[in-house]
Write a structure and sequence with these properties.
By secondary structure, this protein is α/β, with parallel strands linked by helices. It contains 16 helices and 19 strands. InterPro entries: Ald_DH/histidinol_DH (IPR016161), Ald_DH_C (IPR016163), Ald_DH_N (IPR016162), Aldehyde_DH_dom (IPR015590).
């Protein structure tokens, strides 16, 4: 709403330039969301060499150019209905196209709820829903009435759409000549930065960060493109064993989970076969720890309750800076995909390398979203940040996909989003797997958003009082979690 009110060019909270000239715009927290996410900061990094221009579609309209008036086919995700909702809204508002949503057959149970939610758009002809399997999707992608395609799914699905089959040879002109944007998952690394020599994490810090990892693995039982897939640690970190023990202890106290997404049982069996020494770490999670970079198979998502740990070799006198460099290389080169990654970094570790080196580390990571001291899945929730693969995917080598969604500040050339949280967040984050009051807190937060509490626009005196009145309900619900 802020973007539309500003003609597609809402003012970012701040803009800075990195030492190499790359532009970075701060977009989070807005309005009273700072009271809900105290100490958080979200930035959009613009592609190097480009300016932080916004809302090209709306600038063109203001200059008299008409929009495309096209029809976008959205091939919905099967694992998360929230993905479907945001993809539809992005195509409608950011790309100015009406939408034909083809639901994934796994998510067909959501159809009645989506119909109710989107009924005003359906009644006015802006949105239609289609059902069916792969044959329906194939028919729609090739239909002359469809002008563009956006999909959230697998690389195999993308190859079927663009090249005609999952295993088609990717040479010559693609079979599908329409614009296709896609988000295709990632082997998501969680980089655990060791502290400098002489600094130890407290027991409370070990338990807190272990819970961070558990939350990123267990959400939706691991059936997420942002699920933690591999822990990247330092072999020279004296507390590495304590951390893994804290992770096992946390998981063992949580309810048992099972895979529910079609095919997840076969992936779990393949994981057991590949890593016969993997152990049940609790909550249904299989953990294969102590793997060498060569042993870890990191070219495909496990898409379930499986987790790997790779301790990177470290010389006795190596420091934090050396680990950051090695971890960025490992994540970029060894882990398939470029959608998102998580970095857990103690304040002492960041101080040890300094602001410039830390900024350089974030720049080196080739990921479309980076969560610092927060699971990267929360960057997905912050819609002001772009969501998509790091730029560079091609039809011949698509990786995690191409294009961005979300990006409600409508930047024309985003490169990545970086969401940074405090080392320890109080009260307990609502996305933790043992948070017990999520329904009440979610209702309170939605009420605050509905009355404009997270908007940049002034709500006026009466509106501001109403927003302030809604904040205590959020705080109390959070404390009761």
């Amino acid at each position: 709403m802020d973007a539309l009110a500003a003609g597609g060019q809402p003012l970012p909270l701040a803009v800075r330039e990195r030492a190499d000239g790359q532009v970075v715009a701060k977009v989070f927290t807005e309005g009273m969301s700072g009271l809900l996410f105290g100490g958080f900061s979200g930035e959009v990094w613009i592609e190097p060499g480009k300016k932080a221009t916004q809302g090209k579609l709306y600038r063109d309209k203001a200059s008299g150019k008409s929009g495309s008036g096209g029809v976008a086919l959205v091939l919905g995700a099967g694992n998360q209905v929230g993905v479907v909702i945001l993809d539809v809204l992005h195509k409608l508002i950011v790309d100015d196209e009406v939408v034909l949503l083809k639901l994934n057959s796994v998510a067909d149970y959501c159809a009645p709820h989506l119909l109710e939610l989107f009924q005003p758009l359906i009644d006015r002809g802006f949105l239609s829903l289609a059902h069916g399997g792969a044959s329906v999707g194939s028919y729609l992608t090739s239909h002359a009435g469809v002008d563009s395609v956006h999909l959230t799914g697998s690389e195999a699905t993308y190859n079927s759409v663009v090249w005609g089959s999952p295993t088609a040879e990717r040479t010559g002109p693609p079979k599908c000549t329409k614009p296709v944007t896609a988000e295709l998952g990632c082997v998501t690394p969680v980089i655990i930065v060791p502290p400098p020599k002489g600094t130890l994490w407290s027991k409370a810090e070990l338990e807190y960060q272990a819970t961070q990892v558990a939350s990123q693995k267990l959400q939706n039982n691991g059936h997420n493109c942002v699920a933690a897939e591999v822990l990247v640690t330092s072999a020279g970190w004296p507390q590495r064993g304590e951390f893994l023990a804290a992770l096992r202890a946390k998981l063992s106290r949580l309810p048992q989970r099972t895979g529910w997404y079609p095919g997840s049982d076969k992936r779990r069996e393949a994981f057991r076969a590949a890593y016969p020494d993997a152990t049940d770490a609790g909550a249904g999670v299989l953990l294969a720890d102590g793997l060498s970079p060569e042993q870890a198979l990191l070219r495909e998502e496990t898409w379930g309750l499986c987790l790997k740990e790779v301790p990177l070799p470290a010389a006795p006198d190596s420091g934090v800076a050396s680990f950051l460099d090695a971890a960025a290389d490992f994540a970029n080169e060894r882990c398939w995909g470029s959608l998102s990654c998580t970095v857990l970094c103690h304040p002492a570790s960041r101080s040890a390398v300094g602001d410039d080196a830390w900024d350089g580390f974030l720049a080196k990571l080739r990921y479309g979203a980076i969560g610092v001291n927060v699971p990267s899945m929360i960057a997905f929730v912050v819609a002001g940040l772009p969501w998509g693969a790091f730029p560079g995917g091609t039809p011949q080598d698509i990786g995690s996909g191409v294009g961005f969604v979300h990006n409600t500040f409508l930047f024309d050339s985003p490169q990545k989003g970086v969401l940074t949280a405090p080392w320890i967040v109080h009260p307990r984050p609502m996305w933790w797997p043992d948070f017990t009051n999520a329904a009440e807190l979610a209702a309170a937060v939605i009420s605050l958003i509905a009355i404009g509490g997270t908007s940049q626009r002034s709500a006026g005196f009466a509106g501001s009082l109403q927003c302030l009145g809604a904040v205590p309900a959020c705080a109390l619900a959070a404390l009761r979690g």
